[in-house]
Amino acid sequence: MGITKEVFGTARDGKEVYAFTLENSNGMKARVTNFGAILINLYVPDAKGNVEDVVLGFDKLEDYYKNGSFFGATIGPSANRIGNASFQINGKRYQLDVNDGPNNLHSHIELGYHKRVWDVVEEGADSVTFSLEAPDGDMGFPGNKKITMSYSLSDDNQLKLAYHASSDADTLINMTNHTYFNLSGHKSGKIEEHILTIHAGSYTPVVPGAIPTGEIATVVGTPMDFTSPKPIGQDINADFEQLKLTQGYDHNYVVDGADGTLREIATVEDPASGRKMKTFSTLPGVQFYAGNCIGKENGKEGASYGPRMGMCLETQYYPDTINKPQFPSAVFGPDRDYDAVTVYQFI
Description:
By secondary structure, the protein is mainly beta. It is 3% helix and 39% strand.
């Protein structure tokens, strides 16, 4: 099985970009590129052996330069939203790109790590590792940073994403992967029949603009509750303020018992195909996004994408955690490296 490599295209700065295909003994394949450390394809057999690509994306490199929905992308140095596009560390204020109302979303739409050509530093028998360096002040963030991100695929159908970052000054690091899953296949329509469980008894409510209020709220008795298996579409259009603010689910869930060790945080099952995916993470939060705002996109293999045709489980520190002292700290620097692992396993 192992790994194969091909040219995926030429970046705008002239660098050659590659696609790497990881394959295990069960016929599962993950195809990733060093442009944005993006997951392009994820081919998964169902119980009958039918193989489908279960992630949204594009066939061509050029389309990933647009990628308004961040399909498959590695987001950094800071994923999700930062209120008023600014924060303080050690008494100094840092201003970021204002790109989502008055706020910052995903660091920078054009200059973020999802649109950079990463170096390929290691190709293993079942893994590939990408690296990136970012200078002090890059996109407004302090610290000279070195980042690595690796993908590996095991014979027990685990796609593992491992992140490491170091910085010579205290800085904000809160990375994620923004893959959209559709377990029926990327061109099969809406995901509202997928059955989701999230091991989180609470979540972080938001104000207009999707910035957390700072409160940790219980999901009990609300449409936000996925502590027991439930179809995504069951309550998504409920008369509930939090869902109205974000046009459906787009909220950070507080992982039960999170302590920095790898633990199961969510399970999603597609009744149509029988595919089932477990998500594991070392991180304290996960953004469940039901794809409410996917624009009309021409995707892979002539697919036409639109709202709720893919769902994300973006493992993370909480949104705007840098401005909320009561939230877990995502400040890293000389005395604290950033390390995170996320696993998507098909069973």
